[in-house]
């Protein structure tokens, strides 16, 4: 079976991984159109820096009801909302590294349990309809939410601890992804609706509503009370507390504060180890007047890099955009002929060494080969080559965490500490055409275990030249105009060397020259293939296991 290896540049990735341990995440409620012009879930994921989107609400249970204001009206035959559009948006948001939670409760609605057993039974319904289970009626089709939020406001606490514990059992049985539970208490402590839940169940995020009460940011702000809860009462000692704010002056009855007051509050709570970020009600209002962007500026760029940054000081943060979602398998064919690896760029390392003069000193070996073994995990952000941390520490961890079945290769080419050993690693073989300009009949000497780059330049077809060179008098082999349109060094000098050594030249008219260079390229590459295929000689003598060309139309 032919194996094709795709080298994917991780640095160019757009998606990122959510970091629940960060202290600068933004969580935003969506679904109730508090701002009056609510857009789709996907639109907010694309256009805002929110890290967690909480869909509100599941406002009826155990007789299940959903309400998302102006975003869903289709139903199943029994009247339950069927929101395929939201399902697609959930998956899009998740691909961008954002969490999507489904919130239970709200200020209005008919919900609650009469017993723990009722709640445990409803946990199964939630899992099958919104989680990793199966059901004939899934409101979001095959989309799977990242967890559930408890925004209970009717002061009836029956069953919620049992519900959370049962959901945790389902979560723990699904190793394919991480799930979360959150709660949204009012700021008076303990909360009369979710106080038992917070003190008896393992909750990941607590979106504390510091509004509509005396304990708002501009009132008797009681963050320290909640901080004490996190450190001494919460069953989850890693719980993250969020400063819950209205998105605008009209989003809540009281408690709205401007960015300057938020900044002042952050100055007093930002160093709290339990601080996780800011939550807002809701995203449609917070986004309208730039309030959400202002919050992001106050918190700084998110550690999971959902917001791009151009600051060189943020280089190490931006690398987490390298978390890719490339799948090495196909549902239609469980054994596809295509294999996928992640690798980074040797060229970047080479340029860094040249720019700093390191290629002339011993440190060049550390940069290009030795560091992955002898200095693994080193932070190079303050050195002349900060990207080394990206290639050798950050990216391997990301790939191992999110796609452990896909290999990660620290660079292309890369041979580790044994870079002089032709039986290990891969090689960019540039000594034919470039470098020492070896005869291509020496390919058999220029092998390695995997040759990840080699090639030979030909001239393009005459039709290509005629499309880019309008003056026909410039169409001849030594033309400076032809040379100008070629990006490779040496051009006619190197082509002439390999053509004259290997091809009987019939003439120096342009068409004859083009044919000669293309024939020379075909012979050159074919010779390499034949040589290296013979170098897979069996156990203990597998000197070459594969190759690919850079690039067939070069240059």
Automatic annotation (TrEMBL):
Keywords: Carbohydrate metabolism, Chitin degradation, Chitin-binding, Glycosidase, Hydrolase, Polysaccharide degradation, Signal. It catalyses: Random endo-hydrolysis of N-acetyl-beta-D-glucosaminide (1->4)-beta-linkages in chitin and chitodextrins. InterPro entries: Cts1-like (IPR045321), Glyco_hydro18_cat (IPR001223), Glyco_hydro_18_chit_AS (IPR001579), Glycosyl_Hydrlase18_Chitinase (IPR050542). It comes from the Eukaryota. Residues 294-341 are annotated as: Disordered. GO terms for biological process: chitin catabolic process; polysaccharide catabolic process. Coiled coil: none annotated. One of its GO terms (cellular component) is extracellular region. Its EC number is 3.2.1.14. It holds the Pfam family Glyco_hydro_18. Residues 319-333 have a biased composition (Polar residues). Residues 1-17 form the signal peptide. Residues 24-302 form the GH18 domain. Residues 301-311 have a biased composition (Low complexity). It is an enzyme of class 3 (hydrolase). One of its GO terms (molecular function) is endochitinase activity. Belongs to the glycosyl hydrolase 18 family. This is chitinase. The lineage of its organism: Eukaryota, Fungi, Dikarya, Ascomycota, Saccharomycotina.
């Amino acid at each position: 079976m032919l194996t094709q290896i795709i080298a994917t540049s991780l640095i160019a990735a757009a998606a990122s991984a959510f970091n629940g341990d960060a202290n600068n995440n933004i969580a935003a409620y969506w679904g109730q159109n508090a701002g009056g012009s609510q857009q789709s879930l996907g639109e907010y994921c694309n256009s805002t820096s929110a890290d967690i989107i909480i869909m509100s609400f599941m406002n009826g249970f155990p007789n299940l009801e959903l309400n998302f204001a102006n975003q869903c009206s289709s139903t199943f035959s029994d009247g339950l909302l069927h929101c395929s559009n939201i399902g697609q948006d959930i998956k899009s948001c998740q691909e961008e590294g954002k969490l999507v939670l489904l919130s239970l409760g709200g200020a209005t609605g008919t919900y609650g349990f009469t017993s723990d057993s009722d709640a445990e039974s409803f946990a199964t319904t939630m899992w099958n309809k919104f989680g990793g289970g199966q059901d004939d009626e899934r409101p979001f089709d095959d989309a799977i939410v990242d967890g559930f939020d408890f925004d209970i406001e009717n002061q009836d606490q029956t069953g919620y601890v049992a519900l959370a514990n049962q959901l945790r059992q389902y979560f723990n049985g699904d190793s394919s992804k991480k799930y979360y539970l959150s709660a949204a208490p009012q700021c008076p402590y303990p909360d009369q609706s979710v106080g038992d839940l917070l003190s008896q169940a393992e909750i990941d995020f607590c979106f504390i509503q510091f509004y509509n009460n005396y304990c708002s940011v501009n009132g008797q702000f009681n963050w320290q009370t909640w901080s004490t809860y996190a450190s001494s009462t919460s069953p989850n000692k890693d719980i993250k507390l969020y400063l819950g704010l209205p998105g605008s002056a009209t989003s809540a009855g009281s408690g709205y504060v401007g960015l300057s007051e938020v900044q002042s509050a952050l100055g007093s709570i930002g160093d709290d180890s339990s601080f996780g970020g800011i939550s807002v009600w809701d995203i449609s209002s917070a986004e309208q007047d730039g309030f959400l962007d202002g919050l992001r500026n106050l918190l700084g760029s998110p550690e999971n890099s959902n917001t791009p940054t151009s600051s060189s000081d943020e280089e190490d943060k931006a690398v987490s955009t390298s978390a890719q979602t490339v799948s090495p398998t196909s549902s239609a064919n469980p054994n596809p002929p295509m294999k996928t690896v992640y690798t980074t760029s040797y060229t970047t390392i080479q340029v860094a060494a040249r720019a700093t003069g390191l290629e002339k000193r011993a440190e060049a070996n550390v940069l290009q080969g030795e560091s992955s073994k002898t200095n693994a995990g080193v932070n190079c952000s303050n050195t002349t080559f900060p990207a080394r941390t990206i290639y050798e520490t950050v990216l391997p961890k990301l790939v191992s965490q999110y796609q452990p079945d896909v290999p990660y290769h620290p660079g292309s080419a890369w041979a580790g500490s044994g870079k002089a050993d032709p039986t290990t690693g891969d090689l960019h073989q540039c000594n034919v055409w470039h470098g020492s300009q070896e005869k291509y009949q020496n390919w058999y000497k220029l092998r390695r275990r995997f040759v990840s780059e080699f090639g030979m330049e030909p001239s393009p077809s005459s039709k290509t030249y005629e499309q880019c060179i309008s003056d026909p008098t410039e169409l001849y082999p030594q033309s400076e105009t032809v040379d100008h349109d070629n990006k490779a060094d040496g051009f006619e000098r190197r082509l002439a060397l390999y053509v004259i050594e290997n091809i009987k030249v019939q003439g120096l008219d342009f068409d004859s020259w083009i044919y000669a260079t293309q024939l020379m390229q075909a012979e050159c590459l074919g010779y390499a293939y034949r040589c290296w295929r013979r170098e897979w000689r069996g156990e203990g003598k597998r000197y070459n296991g594969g190759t690919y060309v850079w690039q067939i139309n070069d240059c």
